[in-house]
Structures are given as C-alpha cells and as structure tokens.
Specification:
binds 4'-phosphopantetheine, alpha/beta, 6 helices
Length: 183
C-alpha cells in the first residue's frame, strides 16, 4: 500500500479504524462515525469476532445491521475481524484507531487497551472522541438490558436495531407499563 509521509493512502486519503463489538450498534456509535467523517476521508467500522463475550447478535447479524445503516455512506466501510486488532489494522490503510469516550468510567479500560495496542505496534495511535451529550448514557449493554425487559429504546439505536432486538427477545419493545403508586 503506497502511503505518503503522513501515512495517507494515495487513493483513499486519511483512513481511521473504528473497532468494537457493536452488539448492537447504537446512535452513540453512529455519532462517533459521523463526526469522524469530518476529519477522515474514510472510516472502517471493524466488528470484533469474540465469542468469549457471548454476544447477543452473531457477527453476521451485526455486520448486516451496520452495513444496512451505512448503505448510503460510501465513506464508511464495514468489516469484521478475528484476533488482534493491531494485526487487522496492519492489513488496512488506517492510520489511527478511533474510540468513543463516554465518561471517566470508560477511561481506565480505554487507557489499558490503547496502551497495549501501542506496545504491540509503537506506530499505532488511538484517537478518542467524546460522546455527544445526547448519547453519553447509551451503551450496547444497557440497550440490551432495557430491550430485554420490555423498555423502549427508540431514538437511541437505529430503527432496524429496535426491530432486531424485538425479534431476539420476542417482546414488544414499545410496551410502556403504567405504574400507579396507590395500587
Ligand atoms: O465495543 P468493545 O467491546 O468495547 O470493543 C472492544 C474491542 C473489540 C475494540 C477490543 O476488545 C479489541 O480490540 N479486541 C480484539 C482483540 C485485541 O486486539 N485485544 C488486545 C487489545 S487490549
């Protein structure tokens, strides 16, 4: 791959890689990708295959959801990878790893991961973007929990994901329960 001094690929420009489990993709993830596209020419959304994490959605299902969401955004490439992230990055023309940071609680995990990746590949940097205020409380984990218990997650994940969650849990995710305190 021909790269200039800044690590830009001559054909693709500046490429960032956005790795994650995306189990499932949320509007928090989408927000990071959209803002990254203001800085980078292309963003590779790289879905990690990690069966140890016992994902709710298979890698094929996650790929389908993310690909469908970004089908009209040619600057976004959607792929999956197995094994070490640094090995996958080396096969692409990405110049940086991109991660979103929600709160201080994310920091320790992200700091360890970025440091480990940099120790595995000393040229590889991780760039962090602060999650927008609208999504700082959104995580795939809480989305799954809320959906599983029948809560509404519309507006926090793409509509397609709302439907997939509904199918997975065989629950109407729009159902709202009225709680009366005098009951
Ligand atoms: O969305 P997540 O689950 O926080 O993403 C974590 C991910 C997939 C980016 C991370 O677990 C990863 O990079 N996995 C690939 C294996 C690897 O390279 N591990 C060493 C980095 S510490």
């Amino acid at each position: 791959m021909k790269k200039n001094k800044k690590g830009e690929d001559k054909n693709m420009g500046k490429v960032a890689i956005y790795p994650g489990s995306f189990d499932p993709i949320t509007y928090g993830h989408v927000d990071i990708v959209e803002r990254a596209l203001e800085i980078f020419d292309k963003v590779i959304v790289a879905i990690a295959v990690n069966e140890e994490k016992r994902p709710l959605f298979s890698v094929e299902e996650r790929l389908q959801m993310v690909k469908t969401f970004f089908k009209d955004t040619p600057k976004v490439i959607v792929d999956s990878f197995k094994g070490l992230l640094v090995d996958y990055v080396a096969k692409t023309n990405a110049i940086v790893i991109l991660r979103g940071l929600r709160a201080t609680s994310d920091f320790e995990y992200e700091f360890h991961m970025a440091s480990m990746n940099r120790s595995l590949d000393t040229h590889l940097d991780t760039l962090f973007m602060m999650t927008s205020k609208d999504y700082f409380f959104v995580s795939s984990r809480t989305i799954k929990e809320v959906a599983r218990l029948g809560g509404g997650v519309q507006g926090l994940v793409p509509d397609l994901v709302v439907r997939r969650l509904k199918e997975k849990f065989k629950l109407p995710v729009t159902k709202k329960k009225q709680i009366r305190w005098d009951d």
